Amino acid sequence: MIGRLRGLLVEIEGEDALIDVNGVGYLVRCGARTLSRLPAPDEHVTLHIESQTREDGTRLFGFLSKGDRATFVQLQGIQGVGPKAALSVLDILSPAELATAAARDDKTAVARANGVGPKLAQRIVTELKGKPLAGGIDAGLPNAIGSPSQTAFSKDGEALAALAGLGIPDASARRAVEAAKARLDPDASLSALIKASLQEVGR
Fold first, then answer.
1. CA 192 – CA 188 distance, rounded (Å)
2. What's the whole-model pTM score?
3. Most buried among 96, 144, 167, 200, by the most CB within 10 A?
4. Could you tell me if 72 and 50 lie in one domain?
5. Would you say the C-alpha torsion 154, 50, 8, 114 has a positive or negative sign?
6. CATH code at 96?
7. What's the DSSP call for residue 146?
8. How many angstroms separate the CA atoms of 119 and 38, rounded?
9. Distance in angstroms (rounded) separating the CA atoms of residues 176 and 194
10. Is the dihedral of CA 55, 86, 132, 126 positive or negative?
11. CA separation for the pair 187, 59 (Å, rounded)
12. pLDDT tens for residues 117-170?
């Protein structure tokens, strides 16, 4: 099974990215958030791959981080959540933000995903609450809701979303946020974190 691909991004066709790896073209299905953070055509890209084999063949799903890929797999373990719904959830919520939503029983946040109705959104937060998500993120043990760690995950996710909205690639945004956090007070505001992160991007 393919677990990772590194090659040249040839083009984006709808929801798929065509990656050339040593002359072989791989068609990889990606979510909108991932597609928006891919480099320009003819530049190198590395995608973490989840391979799914069915009667009609093998389909590759690509992600820029291992955490996104692992969360994609975990979401599909919930009844009623297929690949399309899992990608839709990750389009609007990072793993950290999903953990926060589950901890707070915030089905409204999950229901913003395309094709995810209120009932399915409730099932998702119920199934994930109290369970570890990708990357060791805790989806809300009862005594952890509102704890500093939960607030930090939410703040990090919002900062990453803000940088992504400015067109900054995911990897660069994550490095910038981590560097900014290292030199800021732990209680710094979200606006301060975003400002410091943008300064790190410019370094």
1. 6
2. 0.66
3. 96
4. no
5. negative
6. 1.10.150.20
7. T
8. 33
9. 9
10. negative
11. 43
12. 999 999 999 999 877 665 444 444 433 333 344 444 457 777 777 777 667 777
- How far lies 118's CA from each of 34, 86, 100, 115, 133, in Å? 25, 15, 17, 10, 21
Rounded-to-integer distance, Cα 30 and Cα 75, Å: 15
Look at strands 16-21 and 57-63 and give their pairing.
unpaired
Share of the chain above pLDDT 70, in %: 86
Cα(156)–Cα(177) distance, integer angstroms:
7
Q: What is the 3-state secondary structure (H, E, C) of 162-180?
A: HHHHCCCCHHHHHHHHHHH
- Asked if 86 contacts 34 with a C-beta cutoff of 8 angstroms, the reply is no
Last residue of a domain, one of 139, 164, 186: 139
Residues 131 and 150 in one domain: no
Q: Is the pLDDT of residue 45 over 50?
A: yes
Residues 85 and 57 in one domain: no
pLDDT in tens, 70-83: 999 999 999 999 99
What are the tens digits of pLDDT across the range 81-113? 999 999 999 999 988 889 888 888 899 999 999
What angle separates helix 148-165 from helix 95-103, to the nearest 10 degrees?
A: 140
3-state SS class at 21: strand
Say if residue 70 is in the same domain as residue 133. Answer: yes
Confidence band, pLDDT 50/70/90 cuts, at residue 184: confident
CA 197/CA 180 separation, integer angstroms:
5
Q: Which CATH number characterizes residue 18's domain? A: 2.40.50.140
